[in-house]
Amino acid sequence: MIDKVKFQRDFFNSNVTRDISFRKKQLHILFSLLKENEKQLCKAIHDDFGKSEFETIATELELIYKDIRKALKQLSQWSRKEPVSTNLLNFPAHSYIQPEPLGVSLVIGAWNYPYQLSIAPAVAAIAAGCTVILKPSELPARTSAIMAKLVSENFDPGFFHVVEGGVQKTTELLQQKFDKIFFTGSTHVGRIVYEAAAKHLTPVTLELGGKSPAFVTRGCNLKMTVKRLIWSKFLNSGQTCIAPDYVMVDNKIRDNFLEKCVEEIEKRSYGLENNNYVQIINERNFDRLAAMVDPEKVYYGGKMDKEKRIFGPTLLHNLSFENKVMEDEIFGPILPVIGYDDLDAAISKVNELPRPLSCYVFTNNKESEQKVMQGISFGGGGVNEAVMHITNPNLPFGGVGNSGTGKYHGEAGFREFSNYKAILNKPTWFELNLKYAPLSKAKLRWIRRFFKF
Ligand code: NAD
Questions:
Q1: Is 153 an active-site residue?
Q2: Whether the model pTM is above 0.85
Q3: With 90 as the cut, is the pLDDT of residue 1 above it?
Q4: Which domains can be identified in the chain, with CATH numbers?
Q5: Which one of the listed residues 130, 220, 241, 359 is annotated catalytic?
Q6: Set 55, 60, 207, 264: catalytic member
């Protein structure tokens, strides 16, 4: 492992990656590689956990293409030296900010969108001029293998290399000194990564999880609310970090909301008989989800086929925050619905929990919209929409507090892998002399004055 990192460090130190045209060329290679192998990529993920070609292209590959296209278009602008004004104390200098690549980066991916969560951070790293060691999640083994194969066949390992493996391999990697670590995964493992990075004072981006709430208020467009909420929750069988984890609904419309949810689920025929319904990633997660379902709280669903790892959409009701399902992130197709009488009290309750990755409000009332959007701290979210904010590359994506640190996609990703070098350039034909001995009260008075400009 030491060799691999050393190899990349030597490559980085050769300064090849500082050349913008080199980075663009690598992004073009990556783009073509993914396009040409779409069929194989879709097959691998389908074999791993039943994700359809439609979903793989719509929720993984197209997001990567979008990031690559944007980087190719705007990279020159992002990398430009930015002149900034200079204060009077430094007259007659000029000042500028120059982005430079952080260096050798480690990207650790999660399993639920295995291509997107591994390759999109790598795109940001490449755009910024970093070298990349990518460690995809080991759980979808075929997707991990195909990424390793395609990258090794098409890139110099000094620049871009995939290391396959689980906890042991990641632990070995984390012992090495990187210049940047970008991690996507659970809050629990995020802490392990953060601690390991701290030993080398390596900057990190942590894309973590949490319980993301959705609020449904009286007077919302209920039909559209249900349609969008159900889609966003059961997409990828609920195994989406920004899926609404639970719904807080006004008690006045709760029963109507639940009935409409059932209608919508049945209309889209999610579940055991649908070939496009994504499997739960493994048995351990299947059992974890099954243990979250209290049969007495099931409003709809609860159907499962353990052998096929298919977990039907399940709605839970008559719940409070004390129920087991409200303890941890669900990360599966179980939707707890909690009624509220007072929106302010519901917001206060959510604020007692760790800060979520996302938060959504479905409402036609401006005041309610503002209360939720301003009253809760979260990474990103939506009004009358859920999950879709990730598809806009102009919106930085990431969490806050327990749900993560740092943002990416588009320019935000470029910034995560860059050091913004700040430079003051002063000619030698003039010197103010105030800072030099002998020190005096008069000089200090002048210095105070100059600091004001
Ligand atoms: P995970 O934390 O179990 O694994 C993530 C990565 O860490 C994998 O590559 C894994 O091999 C590695 N890993 C696991 N245990 C480790 C250890 N002890 N030491 C070092 N490395 C270790 O997460 P997961 O199960 O792959 O993904 C699910 C979690 O990720 C959920 O909490 C979800 O919300 C979160 N997530 C967040 C985002 C986001 O963008 N914020 C996206 C997807 C998933």
A1: no
A2: yes
A3: no
A4: 2-208+403-420 (3.40.605.10), 213-393 (3.40.309.10)
A5: 241
A6: 207
